[in-house]
Amino acid sequence: MDDFSGDWGISVMVVCAVFTVYVLVLLLVTSGRDPGIIPRNYHPPELESYESNAELGIDQLPRFPRTKDVVVNGVIVKVKYCDTCMLYRPPRCSHCSICDNCVERFDHHCPWVGQCIGLRNYRFFFMFIFSASLLCLYVHGFCWVYVRKIIDSEKTTFIKAMGKTPASIALIIYTFLALWFVGGLSIFHLYLIGTNQSTYENFRYRYNGHANPYNRGIVHNFLEVFCRGIPPSKNNFRAKVQKKSKMPLPHDLGSSFVSTSSANARRGPNKAAWDEGIGRDNSMGPEISTVESMENRL
Ligand SMILES: [Zn+2]
Ligand SMILES: [Zn+2]
């Protein structure tokens, strides 16, 4: 700090510290918020029409049609049925295999943040990676300024200046490497926001050769991410956990849709048969969960 004239040294440090705290707060908000989890159904939907419309699978379990067509901004979009959550996912929603939840406007599961990135935390996620990129640039830049200052003031060579401030050199290398990661990610997400795609949709080439019904022009797309109100969470994570015995059990649900004899034959010694049948497409393990287990996973 003393190497800079006037209050410059302190200013550089204060800005860096405040900016670091800001980035950490964004990280906390991104990872701590409900990303847009859709609460699971305890019953399959539309019980009345279920028996007439559903087909029987090889395990004699009635099956919902796997997809349904819905119209979004004049374009037909297929929505899938989630066996785990027992609901038709809204458009752009997907089931995260790590969190084991359906998440609205699913972008991706971020292992670094330890959370799904979806409708309710995408804005903060982008702000986090963008701010982290700026912080890397800031630290990287001022480390070079400091090295330059040593060279000028001591009339020494670059190599000798490096030896005098190994911390700056370590930071220069670290921020350079980090910048490739968070900076590249920020640029990629700028492109995604501009074209109104999620990472999930982009990786699946969902709009290659198809119209993207969500793309309303670059300005509207940015406004949608940064200015649109964020809907409230659909989950009450502080709710009292119900006793499991009061919850409808999977095999009880199953027996209400198929004859008792076939249900018994299928049920066997435990509910594994139901789990396999219901989770056949996404191998999510046990399907019905309580609020408690959802909280634990989060
Ligand atoms: Zn799901
Ligand atoms: Zn996830």
From TrEMBL:
Pfam family, one: DHHC
Annotated region (Disordered), positions in chain: 260-279
PROSITE patterns assigned to the protein according to its UniProt record, in alphabetical order: DHHC
An MF annotation (GO) of this entry: protein-cysteine S-palmitoyltransferase activity
Entry EC number(s): 2.3.1.225
UniProt keyword annotation of Acyltransferase present: yes
Record GO cellular component, one term: endoplasmic reticulum
Catalysed reactions, as listed in the record: L-cysteinyl-[protein] + hexadecanoyl-CoA = S-hexadecanoyl-L-cysteinyl-[protein] + CoA
Top-level taxonomic group: Eukaryota
Gene Ontology biological process terms in this record: protein targeting to membrane
Keyword Transmembrane helix appears in the UniProt entry: yes
Domain named Palmitoyltransferase DHHC: residues: 80-204
Cellular localization per UniProt: Endomembrane system
Transmembrane segments: 12-30, 124-147, 167-194
InterPro entries assigned: Palmitoyltrfase_DHHC, PFA4/ZDH16/20/ERF2-like
Membrane topology: Multi-pass membrane protein
Keyword annotations: Acyltransferase, Membrane, Transferase, Transmembrane, Transmembrane helix
Classification via PANTHER family: S-ACYLTRANSFERASE (PTHR22883:SF441), ZINC FINGER DHHC DOMAIN CONTAINING PROTEIN (PTHR22883)
The family this protein is said to belong to: Belongs to the DHHC palmitoyltransferase family.
Comment, domains: The DHHC domain is required for palmitoyltransferase activity.
Protein name: S-acyltransferase
Protein source organism: Dorcoceras hygrometricum
